[in-house]
Amino acid sequence: MAKNTAALLPYGTTSSAPAITLPDTDLFKSERGSLTKNYFDAAIESLNKEYNSLKQLAEINQMAYGAAYNFVPRVGQTYYLYRTSDQQYLLSMIQDWNKYEFLVALEYSADSVWKPLRL
User: Fold this and answer.
1) Of 15, 76, 108, 112, most Cβ neighbours within 10 A?
2) Mapping DSSP to helix (H, G, I), strand (E, B) and coil, where does residue 87 land?
3) Which residues is 99 bridged to in the sheet?
4) pLDDT tens per residue, the chain (119 residues)?
5) Residue 114: phi, psi to the nearest 5?
């Protein structure tokens, strides 16, 4: 009965059996560890880009909400943000106004966020 079960074992039971070779786990760890590091580096870079984009959007919204304007903004309408003096802003419906420094065209969204437009 012992001879019949010896053939089922995952390793050799005689001296003439093939040598047992262990897998190279160090190579696996270094290769996979490198891939894992690349994955997390890319994820961090993506998060940093999203953070910087949100930070820039928050700064634009702070300027827009701090700007002077005499109208109630409508959702989907395009407005133009100008700098009138140092840290003073004006939100206008006039597009090419040479009197002030043009900063950015904005669209007022349904979630009350001023979103910059590319002209």
Assistant:
1) 108
2) coil
3) none
4) 455 677 777 777 777 777 777 777 887 777 787 888 899 999 999 999 999 999 999 999 999 999 999 999 999 999 999 999 878 999 999 998 888 999 999 999 999 999 999 75
5) -85, 115
**Do residues 115 and 106 make contact, with C-beta atoms less than 8 angstroms apart?**
yes
Q: Under a CB-based contact definition with an 8 Å cutoff, are residues 92 and 69 in contact?
A: yes
Which residue reads 């870079």 in tokens? 45
Cβ pair 109, 79 in contact under 8 A:
no
- What's the token pair of residue 71? 């109208």
- What DSSP element (H or E) covers 56? helix 25-66
Q: What is the distance between the alpha carbons of residues 118 and 103, in angstroms, rounded to a whole number?
A: 12
